[in-house]
Automatic annotation (TrEMBL):
This is Beta-glucosidase. One of its GO terms (biological process) is carbohydrate metabolic process. Keywords: Glycoprotein, Glycosidase, Hydrolase, Signal. Gene3D superfamilies: Glycosidases. It holds the Pfam family Glyco_hydro_1. Belongs to the glycosyl hydrolase 1 family. It comes from Arctia plantaginis (Wood tiger moth). Homodimer. InterPro entries: GH, GH_1_N_CS, Glyco_hydro_1. One of its GO terms (molecular function) is beta-glucosidase activity.
Length: 482
């Protein structure tokens, strides 16, 4: 009845389902610092920031970042202050395995994550662990990184070691964070480490071997660890939502969604598996246009399709932004990815004038996108457990960050509608992020933190923003009615 009486959501509707869990997400390279401490191995971000500083705003590095390697206890205190139910962090592959390979486990790395996991549990906060958040050991990159099929085994070995050390206390695992972002930005235009430009080959090989590596990581857990520990595993996909510019662009918008969401979802979550047929067709046509004899989009064998299919226990989505999209006009010049348009689709993309532009060049605020994306996933891949594993707002330094509060309120409202009106089984929400941190190519110029971090202070003092109190109240009341 309340729904009928209310124009928008009413108090009752603003409640999250019992058992719904709130958290925050982070990534090793973005917060830990201590890049060369003890026996930690060099990773591709260490190498990238030290050799190609011109790629990063202010030539910033993650050498110290938030210094969470030393300040992990303060981080747990903050997670407790916020009342988080879970804290998502990633393991630094080369911190745990300095050579990148399984021949040698760092005692120091092992203990660091042990302390973090135990410290979180001591405060009743569940650790959620990502195995790979973009910091490949440099030793593996030197052998081709994600374009070398052997990465599937290297990742499998690393995953097995991480499970054997922590699966007794970690029940929720994400194998890989955002293949779309790191494959396309690593190997397409070279803006993320290792900064290799190979759009027609590197990016696609990375797509394929990332999916196979994820599947390997999933299957190892499933066969060797699940019987004892009963945890759950999936990967986290970055999904941008696409709206058609006009009715004529509906098919194109669907193709763009397939190219973003489908490329990393269809092989895992669809009944038939393999690449989305529309994307395979598009890539073949594009290869021909570019003069290749055959498609340079790497095909899967039947065995590979079966190996990847079904390797999930839930769908984890990172979502920030949306685009409107239209076909390029005859002779229209496309702005290069990722700032502008979509050459693969011969399409122009952007935000509408009333979509707020955040401090990140790629990020327009469009709250309905998050709900529409979830509904699309449910429609395409069926009913399952959905988790938001990243969502947040990039702004500036100010402590009174009303715009971030507005962002969280509007996106969370859409999630409540997805749960209540569309029947989406959404169980977790992770804010990106708890602390200002090293935001990849933006260095420290872009702030996503609920807590401000003073990066000029050797103690890396953390100070709550207004949004931290807002998020804390939401968690406490389990409702948006705060
Ligand atoms: C996600 C990444 C995060 C985080 C966030 C903000 O794609 O998983 O690691 O960085 O985006 O993005 P950016 O740092 O590019 O502004």
């Amino acid at each position: 009845l309340s729904t009928l009486l209310c124009v928008t959501l009413c108090a009752e509707d603003l409640k999250f389902p019992p058992g719904f869990r709130f958290g925050a997400a982070s990534a090793a390279y973005q917060v830990e610092g201590a890049w060369n401490i003890n026996d930690k191995g060099e990773n591709i971000w260490d190498r990238f920031v030290h050799t190609k500083p011109e790629y990063i705003t202010g030539a910033a590095t993650g050498d110290v970042a938030c210094d969470s390697y030393h300040l992990w206890e303060r981080d747990i205190e903050i997670a407790k202050e916020l009342g988080l139910h879970f804290y998502r962090f990633s393991i630094g592959w080369s911190r745990l395995l300095p050579t990148g390979f399984a021949n040698y486990v760092s005692e120091d790395g092992k203990e660091y994550y042990n302390k973090l996991i135990d410290g979180l549990w001591a405060e009743g906060i569940e650790p959620v662990v990502t195995l790979y958040h973009w910091d490949l050991p440099q030793s593996l990159q030197d052998l081709g990184g994600w374009t070398n099929p052997l990465i599937v085994d290297w990742f499998g070995d690393y995953a097995r070691i991480a499970y054997s050390l922590y699966a007794d206390r970690v029940k929720l695992w994400l194998t890989i964070n955002e293949p779309l972002t790191f494959c396309d930005a690593n190997y397409n235009i070279g803006t993320l480490a290792p900064g290799i430009i190979s759009p027609d080959h590197g990016a696609y090989l990375c797509n394929k071997y990332t999916l196979l590596a994820h599947a390997k990581g999933y299957r190892i857990y499933d066969e060797e660890f699940r019987p004892k520990y009963h945890g759950e595993v999936s990967l986290a996909n970055h999904l941008t939502w696409f709206e058609p510019w006009t009715e004529d662009d509906e098919e194109l918008a669907e193709l763009a969604i397939q190219n973003c969401a489908g490329r990393y979802s269809h092989p895992i979550f669809s009944k038939e598996g393999g690449w989305p047929p529309s994307i395979e067709k598009l890539m073949t046509e594009n290869s021909k246009k570019k003069g290749y004899l055959k498609s340079n989009f790497p095909a899967f064998t039947k065995e590979e399709i079966d190996f990847i299919k079904g390797t999930y226990d839930f769908y984890a989505m990172n979502h920030y932004t949306s685009r409107i999209i239209r076909k390029a006009k005859e002779g229209e010049e496309l702005r290069p990815w990722p700032v502008g348009d979509a050459p693969d689709l011969d399409a122009v993309m952007g935000g509408l004038p009333d979509w707020e532009q955040t401090s990140s060049y790629w990020f327009f605020v469009f709250p309905p996108g998050i709900r529409r994306q979830l509904v699309w996933l449910k429609k395409n891949y069926g009913d399952m457990k959905f988790l938001i594993m990243e969502n947040g707002y990039s702004g500036v330094e100010e402590l009174n960050d009303q715009k971030r509060i507005n962002f969280y309120e509007s996106y969370l409202k859409e999630l409540l509608l997805a749960i209540k009106e569309d029947g989406v089984n959404l169980t977790h929400y992770a804010a990106w992020t708890m602390l200002d941190n090293f935001e990849w190519m933006d260095g420290y110029s872009s702030k996503f933190g609920l807590y401000q971090v003073n990066f000029t202070d050797p103690n890396r003092t953390r100070t709550p923003r207004a949004s931290a109190f807002y998020y804390k109240n939401i968690i406490k009341s389990h409702s948006l009615d705060v």
